[in-house]
Amino acid sequence: MKHDLIVIVGPTAVGKTKLSIELAKAFNGEIINGDAFQVYRGMDIGTAKITPEEMEGIPHHLLDIVDPGDTYTVSDFQRDARRQIQAIHQRGKLPILVGGTGLYINAVLYKNYTFQDEPHNPAFRKELERFAAEHGSKALYQRLLETDRHAAKSIHPNNVKRVIRAIEKARNPSLEPEAEKVKEPLYRHLVIGLSMNRDELYARINHRVELMMAQGLMKEVESLAEQQLQNSQAAQAIGYKELFPVFSGHYDQAEAVRLIKRNSRRFAKRQMTWFKHQMQVHWFSMDQVEQTFTKKVTKIMEFVAGKMN
Which residues bear the site annotation Interaction with substrate tRNA (predicted)? Predict the structure, then answer.
């Protein structure tokens, strides 16, 4: 049976979180995180993770489910999000998937969005696993450096699983996630997209970065550095990767903040391009000059009610 599902997408800082709360209250919903980095514990400020107070009693799912040193893939998210959607429906509630990671959201929505998780050569994987057990993770990592130095830069030497996967990909580049060309929806879903004029959005992004720094983002990144997680998957998030070099003296905090703002703006632009070309979205402008937030929410609610009935 196909289930009803609301999806809220859009660039960073556009207002997705606030809208999701209002829709959840209006339609008896529960919210599923659709952001690739909010799944990590201890990464709250830099990912703009919703606070318990901001939740207003609305249940949220797939937040703080893995440690920052762990690997969490899009196929992991696909599995977990679909389980949450089913569980929410069993409770008689409406699932609302919210986030800016388009690949993750598409992976949930379409039944034929599959991934090649199994190795093409199981014997070769076993060989690599034995090598790591006998010679250690550093020796295995050296093999990756010799095979694909570029891939090795983004992987911590102690993450044996990811190192093995990277060696496999270097040996067989076809080992990549795939989606069927013809997309068949798994759910009866409605995608709401939030947009904003560039100047206003960029100003909001710059202000958010300043607020994050005031809230203690530096201490959050320092905690990851103390755990030697600079090369982990989680540490590649914008707002974190720019601050690690401050601790090594590569540049100062002011330069890091400048880079976070710049990279966040560039990311927002990429998000909009992706959503416009990869998804069927009903767009709503969040420009402040047009209407108040309350009026915008009312308009979106009326649209959703008409489509979901």
Answer: 101, 125
Six token digits for residue 94: 């409406």
Closest-CA residue to 97 (of 177, 190, 27, 12): 190
pTM of the model: 0.80
Domain 4-115+178-308: state its class.
alpha beta
Residue range 242-292, pLDDT digits in tens: 999 999 899 999 999 999 999 999 999 999 999 998 899 999 999 876 578
- Residue 16 marked ligand-binding: yes
Whether 4-115+178-308 shares its CATH topology with 122-171 is answered: no
Q: Does residue 294 have a known ligand-binding role?
A: no
How many Å apart are CA 120 and CA 174, to the nearest integer? Answer: 9
pLDDT in tens, 190-246: 999 999 999 999 999 999 999 999 999 999 999 999 999 988 889 889 999 999 999
The answer to whether 14 is annotated as binding is: yes
> Is 73 annotated as contributing to ligand binding?
no
The rounded distance, in Å, linking the Cα atoms of 22 and 97 is: 13
**DSSP annotation string for 135-202:** H-HHHHHHHHHHH-HHHHTTS-TT-HHHHHHHHHHHH-TT-S----SS--BSSEEEEEEEE--HHHHH
Burial of 142 (0-12, 13-18, 19+ CB in 10 A): middle
The answer on whether 15 is annotated among ligand-binding residues is yes
Q: What residue ranges do the domains of the chain occupy?
A: 4-115+178-308, 122-171
